[in-house]
Amino acid sequence: QVYFVQSGGGFVKPGGSLRLSCVASVSIFSDYIWGWYRQAPGKQRELVAQITTESTTIYMNSVKGRFTISRDNAKNTVYLQMNNLKPEDTAVYYCNCPELLLPWGQGTQVTVSS
Fold it and tell me: pLDDT digits over 39-61, tens only?
C-alpha cells in the first residue's frame, strides 16, 4: 500500500505564500510523473500541476506564474510552492501519480482569506 505524507498547508491572506510537501512511500519514485491536485468544496478534483521524470512542468492556466512544482527523487518528495495566493485557491490539496492514480491520501487544507 502507498502512503502519502503531506505537510505545509494552512491559512494565509491573499497574496501570501505556502509550500506543500508530499513524501510518497513508493518504490522507484523517480520513474513516475507526480502531480498536485486540489478539490474545492462542491467541485471536482482537478490537476493543478505535474512534473515529469525529466522535471518538465505543466500547470493549469489559473496557477501559471504563481505555483511551482518540483521534486527530489532522493527523498521521494514532491513540492508545490504557491505564491500570490488567491481566495479561489482555497481547497484541499493532494499529491498523486497521474500515471497510476494511487489511493488518495488525506490531503492538506489550504485556505486563502482576508
Answer: 999 999 999 999 999 999 999 99
Q: Are 85 and 18 in contact (CB under 8 A)?
A: yes
3-state secondary structure 88-108: HHCEEEEEECCCCCCCCCCCE
Helix (H, G, I), strand (E, B) or coil at 29: helix
Q: pLDDT for 62-85, tens place per residue?
A: 999 999 999 999 999 999 999 999
Question: In 3D, which of 32, 26, 60, 65 has the Cα closest to residue 46?
Answer: 60
Q: Report the pLDDT value the prediction gives residue 3, as an integer from 0 to 100.
A: 81
∠ CA 2-59-15, rounded to 5°: 100
Q: Using CA atoms, how far apart are residues 103 and 44, in angstroms rounded to an integer?
A: 16
Alpha carbons 12 and 29: distance in angstroms, whole number: 31
